[in-house]
Amino acid sequence: MVTITFPDRETEKRALGFLLGRFSGRVLKSGEHLVPEAALEALADQNISFTVQGKSTYEQQIAAVRDTAPATI
User: Residue 73 class from Cβ within 10 Å (0-12 exposed, 13-18 middle, 19+ buried)?
Assistant: First the structure.
């Protein structure tokens, strides 16, 4: 999993709409998104801007499961 962010809320909404049903992932309370690496290419192909923060840590993945209701992308 990779941690990404979006430049603004509108881009985030567009990205989530695209990702739904295609990839699994999580949204953290911080506004960061955990997505599989394959989602990066798909987002780029759709001309959706995002910033890669890096590989998601074990702690981020556990926090996503613990802190959220099922919020699958």
Answer: buried
